[in-house]
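TA notes, week 10

Several of you asked for a full example with nothing omitted. So below is the full record: structure tokens for the whole chain, then the designed sequence directly under it. When grading your own attempts, check the secondary structure regions first.
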């Protein structure tokens, strides 16, 4: 593709808060579309709101994309173009497309009563009051009568352009050919097309408005209502995997068809068709995200899983490398995202790996269909298997003998008291996993202690 025909897109967030997952999805769709077309994608920080912009939010946006590993071809800040925006304002005024508007005296007085401040003068775009039509790649033909829009504000002063003017001028200057953004911007498009046509420097961009992301109650997912869960960094900090998050985001409003759901970013880029993006809102289902993440955890190598476990498991210094190696398959089987390890630690779910149980209520060792005497006898049979010298180094043989015993005596009568003896809890990994994690001597000690606790009932 020649430079003149190259697809150029942009993602243009405002640094007035953390990166919303809706913004991340817009950026992702821009990225996928652009890479598929071998084009160029620009990250443009729209920092024209001088009162609300914060550098920490800009840095947060950069961190989020670093985590997602979405690399832009250029990084820009809109404020760098303020002098150019002034020239375009002057041009629009001189050509009769815009004018300086004085605020009515009664409006100034009314605003003062309400504790608000209105400027004495603003710059308005002179609306030609006509029908604007454009082809949206997702929504098809769109026509809007701009008469109801009135003469809208494009700057607070020559040196203070607002969103509509700055947005259009920068798109023109950067050669943007395709504008892919959220449905909430659909109402802005007619105004921006009017400005684009008035500037008249080149053919206007093609638009695509992707659907809103909705909560499970089908309301717009917003920072105000839903808080930190709409932030990309929330998921990074909770130990979600970026590949899982990208796969999930890509499927919010689009999918390639068929039953398969696990796709790498490269595969998504090959399959993506922007015209197949749905028009209606896409529901953000946290359980579905957790499913994606668990599937991606399974795809990690053992060393990658251990790296995440060491990052998220509290008091990691208490665990030897050997124990972590044994714990790894059990832990990753029980989580959907790595921060759940912290939750497990807080409620004491991991205590049985570090501390010998005390059995404060020995009755819980007894299987519901059994009794004290039978449970003691069954634990003594397990004790004898654990004492066998050849079983100390052959855990597979050890488990084979215990499972054979369970098939003879009843799985509940053998496996329940064994699991409780090893963990001291009614909710824990299966006894086979516990035996593989604990060494044989520790397992034997716990079974002996459980027998003693039952005898003292």
């Amino acid at each position: 593709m020649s430079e003149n025909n190259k697809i150029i897109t942009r993602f243009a967030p405002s640094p007035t808060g953390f990166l919303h997952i809706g913004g991340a999805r817009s950026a992702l769709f821009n990225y996928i579309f652009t890479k598929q077309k071998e084009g160029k994608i620009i990250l443009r920080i729209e920092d024209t709101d001088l009162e609300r912009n914060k550098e920490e939010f800009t840095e947060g946006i950069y961190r989020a994309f670093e985590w997602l590993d979405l690399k832009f071809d250029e990084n820009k800040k809109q404020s760098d173009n303020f002098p150019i925006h002034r020239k375009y304002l002057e041009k629009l005024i001189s050509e009769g497309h815009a004018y300086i508007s004085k605020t009515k005296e009664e409006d100034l007085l009314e605003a003062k009563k309400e504790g608000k401040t209105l400027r004495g003068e603003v710059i308005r775009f002179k609306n030609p009051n006509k029908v604007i039509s454009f082809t949206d790649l997702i929504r098809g033909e769109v026509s809007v009568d701009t008469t109801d829009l009135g003469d809208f504000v494009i700057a607070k002063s020559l040196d203070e352009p607002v969103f509509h003017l700055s947005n259009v001028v920068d798109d023109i200057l950067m050669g943007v050919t395709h504008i892919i953004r959220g449905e909430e911007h659909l109402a802005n498009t007619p105004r921006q097309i009017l400005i684009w046509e008035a500037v008249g420097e080149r053919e206007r961009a093609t638009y695509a408005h992707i659907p809103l992301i909705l909560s499970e109650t089908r309301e717009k997912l917003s920072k105000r209502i839903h808080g930190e869960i709409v932030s990309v960094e929330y998921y990074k900090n909770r130990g979600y995997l970026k590949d899982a998050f990208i796969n999930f985001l890509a499927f919010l409003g689009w999918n390639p068809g068929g039953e398969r759901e696990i796709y790498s970013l490269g595969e998504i880029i090959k399959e993506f068709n922007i015209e197949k993006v749905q028009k209606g809102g896409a529901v953000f289902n946290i359980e579905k995200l957790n499913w994606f993440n668990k599937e991606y955890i399974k795809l990690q190598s053992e060393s990658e899983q251990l790296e995440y476990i060491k990052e998220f498991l509290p008091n990691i210094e208490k665990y030897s490398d050997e124990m972590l190696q044994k714990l790894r398959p059990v832990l990753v089987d029980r989580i959907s995202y790595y921060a759940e390890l912290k939750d497990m630690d807080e409620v004491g779910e991991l205590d049985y790996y570090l501390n010998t149980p005390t059995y404060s209520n020995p009755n819980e060792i007894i299987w519901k269909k059994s009794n004290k005497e039978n449970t003691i006898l069954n634990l003594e049979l397990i004790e004898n298997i654990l004492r066998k010298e050849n079983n100390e180094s052959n855990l597979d043989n050890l488990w084979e003998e215990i499972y054979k015993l369970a098939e003879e005596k009843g799985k509940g009568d053998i496996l329940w008291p064994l699991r409780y003896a090893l963990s001291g809890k009614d909710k824990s990994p299966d006894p086979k996993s516990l035996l593989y994690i604990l060494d044989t001597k520790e397992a034997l000690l716990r079974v002996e202690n459980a027998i003693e606790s039952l005898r003292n009932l």
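The CA atoms of residues 243 and 264 lie 7 Å apart. Use that as a sanity check on your answer.
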